[in-house]
Amino acid sequence: MRQKKNRKKKKNRKIRILTGVVLGVGLAGALFFNVFKIRNIQVAGNTRYTKDEIKEMVADDKWMKNTVLLTTFHSKVDMSDIPFMNSVEFTFVSYDTICIQVNEKKVVGYVEYEGQKVYFDKNGIVLECVDEEQETPAEGESSDGTASDGTSADGSLTSEPLASESVSSDGTASESSTSDGALSADTIKSARVTTTDFQPTLSDVPLVTGLTFDYVTVNEQLPVEKPAVFRTMLALTRMTEKYNITPDSVEFNENSEIILHYYDTVRILLGTDTALEEKMTRVAAILPSLSGLSGELNMEDYKDGDSSFVFSKDV
């Protein structure tokens, strides 16, 4: 009888211990999920989409509940199905806060082709094709296809009489004296149009004219005659971003010489891509003094140390 009671006591003790363990684990789990619940989300590295859009992109992720679990087991997510996105990475900030680090595809320019804007990266790889109707037409373009900066719709310069003055890199000016960018193409291959609830900001991406190609294929390089032009575009992009002087458009003429368009009325003739960094340093210094003017700044014959250049006014 006594042995039976002892066995019963032992059994009850085991049940109480097990119950205590279960309750303890449950309480610890509840505490863990409550304490480390995601309440604050930071976003970094985004330029194409707003912070709210980035948050919305990942809102349905099943891991977006707990800071520890998310950053430990699901720290990186492929987002390449969204235009101009590569991936996002989640990092732990505090017990209830995470940071979404956005990794975007680097866009250096776009070309216009058959009613679409074709965006490409530093290697000339086509990233996206966007219908022009989805974006606001460029300012300064008239209904006949001629832009107010003296260029035609294909990017070539129109003939205008010019009056000249000399402009130095300190912004002073004094009186003195003194292309074809058509796009050729036939068909688009595998060009997918951006269809998404999220609209990327692309106003800082310059139009590139003067490139000749026959077709466009997403995820492949633009089939231009001189692929070296993409290295030039990358170098230009680095310099214009450094000095915050992104042009409205970049034109390459038949000799692969560079013409930058600013303010809808100013054309900067850089010539070839030799000494490009030095030239762009001078452009950054001179450009503010050209606001409100109309004409060409000639830097084609730049030599090391030059600080004064001829600006030919449109007449």
Structure notes:
It contains five helices and 17 strands. It folds into two domains: 40-104, no CATH class; 109-135 and 146-314, no CATH class. The radius of gyration is 30 Å and the shape is elongated. Helices cover 25% and strands 28% of the residues. The protein has helices at 2-35, 51-58, 67-73, 229-243, 276-290, and strands spanning 40-44, 76-78, 85-94, 97-104, 109-113, 116-120, 126-131, 162-168, 173-175, 187-189, 207-209, 215-217, 249-252, 258-262, 266-271, 295-298, 308-314. The chain has 315 residues and is an alpha+beta fold.
In short:
This protein is of the alpha+beta class and 315 residues long. The chain is built from 5 helices and 17 strands.
The overall pLDDT average reads 80
Give the count of helical stretches: 5
Low-confidence stretches: 136-164, 173-195
Tell me the number of strands: 17
Main pleated-sheet profile: 8 strands, mixed
Estimate percent helicity: 25-40%
Overall geometric form: elongated
- How is the largest sheet built, in terms of strand order? 9-8-17-16-15-14-13-11
Order of helices and strands: HEHHEEEEEEEEEEEHEEEHEE
| Count of distinct structural domains | 2
- End-to-end span in angstroms? 119 Å
Please state roughly what percent of the residues sit in beta strands, choosing from under 5%, 5-15%, 15-25%, 25-35%, 35-45% or over 45%. Answer: 25-35%
Gyration radius, in Å: 30 Å
Structural class comes to alpha+beta
